[in-house]
Amino acid sequence: MNKETEPAKLVVYNRDGLIEEEHFGYVIKCDKVHTIEQLGEDKHYPFYMRSCEKPLQASLIIDYELDKKFDLTEEEIAVCAASHAGEKVHVDIVKRLLDKFEIPVEKLKCGDHQPISQTAQNELLLSGQQPTVLHNNCSGKHAMMLGLCKINNWDIENYDDINHPLQQAIKKKIYELCEVKTQYPITKDGCGVPVHSMPLKNMVKGYLNLFCDPKYEKIKNAFLNHPYIIGGENRTDTKIIENTKNLVAKVGASGLCIVVNTELEEAFIVKICDADMKAREFVTVDLINNLKWGEIELSHNIETNQHEKIGDVITLL
What we know:
There is one protein chain. By secondary structure, this protein is an alpha+beta fold. 37% of the residues lie in helices and 21% in strands. It contains twelve helices and eleven strands. It has helices spanning 54-63, 66-69, 74-80, 88-101, 118-127, 139-151, 165-177, 200-211, 217-225, 227-230, 236-242, 277-290, and strands at 8-15, 18-31, 35-39, 47-48, 186-188, 194-198, 247-252, 256-261, 266-272, 301-303, 309-315. The strands form two sheets. Strands 1, 2, 3, 7, 8, 9, 10 and 11 form an eight-stranded antiparallel β-sheet that branches. A hairpin with a 5-residue loop joins strand 5 (186-188) and strand 6.
């Protein structure tokens, strides 16, 4: 546990009267000006944004008019901001993007990766195929980065380098959107490109400044109209967007999820300290339901393989 912060207990798994699991973390709810509610004291500790950074990176599509120059569809914009599950629909859209940019697949630097989707994994196995760079959940983001390099005449060979003009432009934009005034640590994400850290509140501000700004309406509509492209099979952000009216959601590794109510112009972030994905989903969905932002069904039962109930998952919100 991070000694510099004081996370709150957010989730308890109760199996026949005994506490079997406990998950700690933080919840921060904001509007564009104020922190409205907070669980856990993060003490402004910086966390890496991981894939929650993708929509903010995608803002450069609009800033550099990549969308207009290549007549990008909403689905193509969505996959640029996605942590997609590597299903055929996702792979096909990334291929289409690269064809529009006239850039070969081999230029993607995110690396070969198994699809997140279990169905897509099974399909590859049954067909005797190996996963490729296109199945990587970050392939849309990397395709976008190559497109931005092309229209700006930037070198596409080292677009992943922190000192590359693209990565410098991304950092400047993210700091602007997230209202970051201090230099925080930067590392490489799992896919090899720089990822930035900042306090959780700044991440929420970034999402509000992006998704509630008419300038970036195409990105908002890409999320709202194509939730399956944003995630895919059994992905938390896809479930949230599909089952609500005005909510944008994006998950990130290490227990992150950010949700924006685009109508109320309010947002919250969930950070689960042990990065448990199921705990993250319970907290996020229950908070949406408690706030009356939507009604999403999620079973809190703990069951045997014979579907006999033997316990409950309880969120302490």
